[in-house]
Specification:
It comes from Perca flavescens. Helix content is 26%, strand content 36%. It contains 2 helices and 7 strands. The strands form 3 sheets. A 3-stranded antiparallel sheet has the order 5-6-7, with no helix packed on it. The protein has a two-stranded antiparallel sheet with strand order 1-2. The chain has a two-stranded antiparallel ribbon with strand order 3-4. 9% of the residues are buried. About 4% of the residues have low confidence.
């Protein structure tokens, strides 16, 4: 009799675990992002001007509380909302490892300077 009760309890626990996994997979269906992640939705490049390329990208992010969509290591990422609020763009480490970051004078964005002297300028909307 005891063995039967244990078997039923284990069966019930297994069914509960299965249902939780099923519910979790339904919540994270294709097209939904996990919390704290971003993906690039569109990327447009305009090279019509000599020696200048204008790139515009749109990212979709699912940021956690206190975070907002930003840029880290030249990729979209969730960053601390205070960085964006204070416009201290270089604090989110937007440039690649070998690049230097500088704020634009009016704090509307930042520049990433490569060792060879090439400069990439990013402005925030």
């Amino acid at each position: 009799m005891q063995l039967l009760r244990v078997a039923w309890a284990l069966t019930g626990a297994a069914i509960c675990c299965f249902l939780l996994l099923l519910i979790h997979s339904r919540l994270l269906q294709e097209g939904q992002l996990a919390a704290g992640t971003c993906e690039i939705v569109t990327l447009d490049r305009d090279s019509s001007q000599p020696r200048r390329t204008i790139a515009r990208q749109t990212a979709r992010c699912a940021c956690k509380k206190g975070q907002i969509a930003g840029t880290t290591r030249a990729r979209p990422a969730c960053v601390d909302a205070g960085i964006v609020r204070k416009k201290q763009w270089c604090e989110m480490v937007p440039c690649l490892e070998d690049e230097g970051c500088d704020l634009l004078v009016n704090k509307s964005g930042w520049t990433c300077t490569q060792p060879g002297g090439r400069v990439k300028t990013t402005t925030a909307l």
